[in-house]
Amino acid sequence: xxxxxxxFPGSNCDHDLLNVLEHVLxxxxxxxxxxxxxxxxxxxxxxxxxxxxGDYLRSGSIARFxxxxxxxxxxxxxxxxxxxICNGFxxxxxxxxxxxxxxxxxxxTFICRNTYVKAETDQSLITSRLRxxxxxxxxxxxxxxxxxxxxxxxxxxxxxxxxLFRYCDAEGGVxxxxxxxxxxxxxxxxxxxxxxxxxxxxxxxxxxxxxxxxTDGLGIFQSILQIVTA
Amino acid sequence: MKYTANITVMPLKALLDPQxxxxxxxxxxxxxxxxxxxxxxxxxTLEVESPDEKTARQKVEDACKKLLANPIIESYxxxxxxx
Lengths: 230, 83
Hints:
heterodimer; A: alpha/beta; Rossmann fold; nine-stranded mixed sheet; two-stranded antiparallel ribbon; 5 helices; about 25% strand; B: alpha+beta; Mth169, Chain: A; three-stranded antiparallel sheet; 3 strands
C-alpha cells in the first residue's frame, strides 16, 4: 500500500508518520510537498500534526488553501482515503471534508500528555482491528482540540456511526473528568458520511513504534492495512 | 478605487469562549466586578482595490466566508470606507 504524507510549513509530526508507515509497518510512503499539485498515485493521503502556517487565524484555516489541498479534496470526493491527525484533523474540518470545528481547549491551555481513547465502532477503515470499548493510551498535543458541532450534526454523527473515538479514562469510563479539552460528547475522532475521510485529535503515530514504549496506537494503522491489502 | 474594511469576527454567542471567560473573571481582581460577559474576538483590517463599493463589499464578504471567519463557530461583520 502506498501512503502519502503531506508536508505543510509548520508540520512537525510528518516524520513520525513516515517512520511508522515505512519502518514499523513496512509500507511504501512518500512525503508530498504542500505546494505540489500531484498526489503521485498514493492509495491514502495522510495530513500530519503540527502547526501549519503557525496556527494563524484558526488552526488549519490557511493550510486548507495550500495548493495540494485542491487535489486532496478531489481525491476525497472520488472516494479516496484521507486521514488527518491533530492539525490534519483541523485542516479537514476547515476544508469541510469533515463536519464540525476544533475550538480552543475549554481551559485555554495547550495540553501535551497521554490520554485514553476508545473506539466506538469497528465499522471504519481505521478502527476495523480495534476492540470496541478497549481504552488505548494515546498522547494528545493541542491547544485547539475541542471538537464542536451543532446538536443536529452531533446526532447525525452518532446515528450514522461516524464517531470513531471518544476520550475515556484508563478503565474505559467516559466522564467530564476524562474529557481533556471539553470536546462535545467527548468526541476525539470522526469520519465522514461516506467513511473515507477520517480525523482524530490524539496522535497514534506517537504511540506506534516499540522503541517509544507504547504501541497502543499501532492498531489504528494495522486496521488500515487489514482492510486495504486484504 | 481603494477601500478599507474593518472586520470584526466573534465566537458565536452559543459557544463557550474560554478567553472571554478568563478575562471576565479577572475583572473582580481589577476591582471592576460590574463588568461581565466579556467575549474576545478578532479585529481584521484590509484594503481592497475595486471599481465600486458594491464590488468591494462582495470581495470582503467572499474573504470572510472562505477564510477570515468559520461560520460553524464564528460570526462576522464589517464596515467599508474609502481608503
